């Protein structure tokens, strides 16, 4: 048991039977942390994000994550849905720590209306934030499932940029549906999981994204969350905000 991972272990405690294959946190979770410094550091980083949430926000996020702790995708994406939910923690911290929002809350889902993930207040301004994750491509998933792996170079294809613009438009539509005509600041907070799993080309990828965004009118403000690896340094962008963690 790692006491510095208290909120991570709260998530783990939501799993009734950690021996089942569909459970993300298995019985040997602590042993795997002991054996892998990279895995341990990754979860320590997640814990820092979780600790930034107040008690109400943390309780909400846990309940959002609960159904996905035992829902492993059978087509090779593992627990992608779980991490899509957990990625919202870094967006919450961005609103609090970077934008200085005095209050931030997760927006409850409404079956009758599209909603953003987060709402904050900075002065008299309402800030809405929708969190999106661009996951590994289907081609890469197929290659990994087949045990072959695929070539990953520094170039991003047209399909990636089509997906990026679609996610930004979708985020804006969700925020507009929620806010109506009310003046709000609208932020699409995007985490990208490149096919290059080791992150060797991350700097080149973001350079290409930055060039793509230059001079382009986007449907919402865009913030990228860059979870750093040992293979690349801090990333800088001219045409979007990027958070390096």
SSE-based structural type:
alpha/beta
Low-confidence stretches: none
The helix content is 40-55%
State the major sheet: 6 strands, mixed
SSE run: HHHHHHEEEHHEHEE
Radius of gyration, rounded?
A: 18 Å
- N-to-C span: 25 Å
Q: How many helix segments?
A: 9
Number of domains: 2
Strand content: 15-25%
- What is the mean predicted local confidence, pLDDT? 91
Shape: globular
What's the number of extended β-strand segments?
Answer: 6
Widest sheet: strand ordering:
1-2-3-4-5-6
Concise synopsis of the structure shown:
By secondary structure, this protein is an alpha/beta fold. The chain has 9 helices and 6 strands; from the N terminus they run ααααααβββααβαββ.
Describe this structure in words.
The protein is α/β, with parallel strands linked by helices and 245 residues long. The protein has two domains: 1-73, no CATH class; 87-244, no CATH class. It is 41% helix and 16% strand. It contains nine helices and six strands, in the order ααααααβββααβαββ. The protein has a six-stranded mixed sheet, sandwiched between helices. The chain is globular, with a radius of gyration of 18 Å.
Note the main attributes of this structure.
245 residues, alpha/beta, 2 domains, six-stranded mixed beta sheet, 41% helix
List the helices and strands and how they pair.
Blueprint: H1 6-13, H2 29-35, H3 37-51, H4 55-65, H5 80-86, H6 88-98, E1 103-106, E2 118-122, E3 125-134, H7 138-145, H8 158-179, E4 184-192, H9 202-213, E5 221-226, E6 241-244
Parallel strand pairs: 3-4, 4-5, 5-6
Antiparallel strand pairs: 1-2, 2-3
Helix pairs in contact: 2-3
